[in-house]
Amino acid sequence: MSDSRLDAFKDNGAVFFIFGATGDLAKRKLFPAFFSLYKEGKLPERFAVIGLARRARTKEQFKADLLQSITEFARYKLNAEDEIWQRFVEHFEYLSLDIHNVEGYKALKDASERLEDKFDIKGNRLFYLALAPELFAGVANNLKLGGLLEGSGWNRLVIEKPFGYDLESAEKLNRQIGEVFREEEIFRIDHYLGKEMVQNIEIIRFANAFFEPLWNNKYIANIQITLSETVGVEERGGYYDHSGAIRDMGQNHMLQMVTMMAMEPPSRLNPEDIRDEKVKVLRSLRIHETAEDVRANVVRGQYTDGVLRGKALPGYRSEDAVSPDSVTETYFGARLYVDNFRWAGVPFYIRTGKRLPVKTTEVVVEFKNMPDNVYLAKRTKLQPNLLVFRVNPLEGIYIKINAKQPGSDSMIIPVAMDFCQSCQVGLNTPEAYERLLYDAARGESTYFTRWDEVSLQWRFVDRIVQAWSKDSRDLNLYPAGSWGPEAMDKLLAEDGFHWWPINGQEESDVLWVKGQE
Ligand SMILES: NC(=O)C1=CN([C@@H]2O[C@H](COP(=O)(O)OP(=O)(O)OC[C@H]3O[C@@H](n4cnc5c(N)ncnc54)[C@H](OP(=O)(O)O)[C@@H]3O)[C@@H](O)[C@H]2O)C=CC1
Ligand SMILES: O=C1O[C@H](COP(=O)(O)O)[C@@H](O)[C@H](O)[C@H]1O
Fold first, then answer.
1. How far is the CA of 408 from the centre of ligand 1 (A)?
2. 172 in a domain, yes or no?
3. Residues 395 and 325 occupy one common structural domain
4. Which of 117, 164, 207, 303 might form a disulfide with 480, Cβ 3.0–4.6 angstroms?
């Protein structure tokens, strides 16, 4: 099937402006993504990239930076002698620019026009802001003042997270950017939406006759979403201490995953139809209004000294650039309700934290048990069916069902069917940033967050943060390397549930593992 947006991109090309080209994100994610897209023929020869940051880089230095970034982080192996590298790197230039210096944008405009001539690009411009958020509005405004939005093609603004610090600041930022770019020109990144298995949630749900009919409160007991990390705050203590887990992961990635799990099937596969459905979920999300609601449904924690895989680790308050008496949460967990017809009464448990025992992103759907049945109950206590989306680092789906134990006693045991996608097609699937960069270049906005989504996400988070700011006694300390505050386990226990084990079940459960033989 031909993709007209892709054809248009290939025919007309684009200049990509990477603000923050000397930064961590550009090095680890963006430049490798450009290379993979080029290698796969997804970038036309009609493209150019201008790297922008304050520090001076000669053409040769910038080339060396690119080579280092790609050899270290790209999913394709690269050698400086490769012919493809020589062709690829010709499309890149670097310009030193302080984003506040309006005069500098004139030079940028000249550089852009020169590259458009050189590569026969028809005026399309994509501005990627891999910058600290406080610089976003300034760049947008200066692009306008500098005449960069007056080309003959489209203009698109790709913005990194976080989009604001709370609803008020997000609204202000949105107003400022909105004075320059139209909503359909703004692509707000939530890189979880670029992940293979997050995108696969829709397909698994809507393309399978044995899931969609069961996808409601009649059959689903609860949904559990875990985004656990083994890392601490690394070099980002300064940012993180003002943000905390709820703003860093909760407001964006976690709520977006809730929307993917809970949304109604869209009437059409247009970006706006899909995003409309996600917005409806966010509107139905029960707000924890009072401090009491927050205490009853939300858990926060902070890691202390501990041991992870045999290594002693310092507590959060001893990390670089973190206040020694910080009450910032490094763990956020909550019980959510989506108050609509489909989900009434089904708890969604979400949790994320730093310095937990494993790096993983998983979504577990726990189905309700079969009604008590004399025939079956005699043989064993039935386990609930589970459907598990493994998002990261393993990608795949895991289903747990009840079956007869081989032998003559007719006992029932849980067995697992495990489809490991990353094991089957290898680990070389496109990285989230690669997909998102490609989508932005084609003008495909499905997996970017629209303003109404962002604002509703802040509305939910703000109430919790307000309640927390009044009293920090509910900050639970947890040792690095543990699964976080026990208060979160208690919250599930109140409802008669528990967290299902992450990354696979007990060995004895797994009788048949498809794709991992
Ligand atoms: N790194 C990551 O993995 C992730 C990052 N993000 C987001 O991406 C954005 C960038 O993050 P990251 O790359 O880590 O940040 P870095 O601090 O590593 O990089 C910041 C970049 O901004 C440039 N810069 C700073 N001030 C100016 C200025 N006045 N004018 C022009 N350029 C300037 C810096 O270059 P110079 O000093 O030379 O000017 C540098 O290239 C942030 O919004 C972050 O939240 C989101 C998810 C993951
Ligand atoms: O956005 C962020 O995400 C990363 C985790 O991303 P993942 O793709 O590795 O799961 C997190 O470490 C970081 O704090 C946060 O800003």
1. 64
2. no
3. yes
4. 303
- Domain stop point among 142, 160, 178: 160
For residue 108, the enclosing domain spans 4-160
CATH code of residue 122? 3.40.50.720
CA-proximal residue: ligand 1, atom 35 (nearest) = 53
What's the whole-model pTM score?
0.94
Q: Which of 73, 76, 71 is nearest to 36 (CA)?
A: 76
Ligand 1 atom having least distance to the Cα of 133: 43
Q: Are strands 125-129 and 14-19 parallel, antiparallel or unpaired?
A: parallel
**220-228 and 360-367: which strand pairing?**
antiparallel
Ligand 2 within 6 A of 392 CB?
yes
83 and 140 belong to one structural domain? yes
Active site residues: 253
Distance between CA atoms of residues 330 and 302, nearest Å: 5
- Return the sign of the alpha-carbon dihedral for residues 103, 108, 111, 117: negative
What is the domain-level CATH number for residue 365? 3.30.360.10
Distance 82 CA to ligand 2 centre (A): 33
User: How many Å lie between the centroid of ligand 2 and the Cα of residue 436?
Assistant: 15
pLDDT tens string 135-194:
999 999 999 999 999 989 999 999 999 999 999 999 999 999 999 999 999 999 999 999
Q: What is the pLDDT of residues 234-255, one digit of tens each?
A: 989 999 999 999 999 999 999 9
